Amino acid sequence: MLYAIIDVGSNSIRMTIFRWEDGKVDMLLNKKSMAGLAGYVEKGKLNEAGIKKCSEEIASFVKLAKNVEVDGISIIATASLRNISNLEEVQAALESRCGLRAQVLTGQEEARLDFVGASRYLSVDSGVLIDIGGGSTELVLFEKGSIRHLTSLPIGSLNLYAQYASALFPTEKDRKRMKARIQKELKAIDWLPPTEPVALCGIGGTARGFFKICRELYGVPKCQNELDASYIGQVNKKLKSQDIHEMQSIFRAVPDRVFTILPGMMILHQAAKKFGAQRFLVSKPGLREGYLFDRVLPQVQVSASNVTD
To answer: pTM for this structure?
Structure first.
């Protein structure tokens, strides 16, 4: 079976095509478009240009998926659509253009599916999972492979930039305002991890971008997916210094995140401090894999069982 999942985020729209065969899942294709939908939100609504951008990008992915002859397609949306007031207008545009509607996940659902996807691949069974998206940040405290607490915060790399950046690159005053907002949101979390050294596990664009920067600046091997958490503070400090030579190296590593890597790293840095993280791991699998395992494959297996019966 081939199955396509299109993930509509505030910063990017991604499509992954999976193959499920003999109980094994393989990723066949992974494509993204930096649509930046959060930048099209005006007074709580996705404006006309944003609706057009959203439907056009998704339509191109749907066309590609159909050309590959997938057995099914799901469109899932996170903060990009759940936080707008004209969702039905967007859904109507998608249905008209693609013949499909988006399944809009709550923040709690997104956090849980993040964990379902990442936990199958992580090398630790206890820690804190963080998914810094463009419009929200999901956090999951897990112990012995099970979720203890989870939450979704209404801050992300793109909406922080949109709300607080007064210039192309955030000024010191802008960064102070971002930091205050991040600390306010994190302060509301009343659960803390166990007393032993905490592993902070990241998924999403900011986490992957952080590792790309570390490979560029510190020569971290591409195969390595774990670092001492102190690197988070070091990269955050370099971003804030705005030294031209170091900034060139950073932007060479993450050219598609020129404007959002700083606010994303600020969220990651404050979260690492909040939970006392001593090491940081990155997991490529996350929400789309979680949706596949939790929502798609169980239905496929039930259908196969009914046919057999």
So the answer is: 0.92
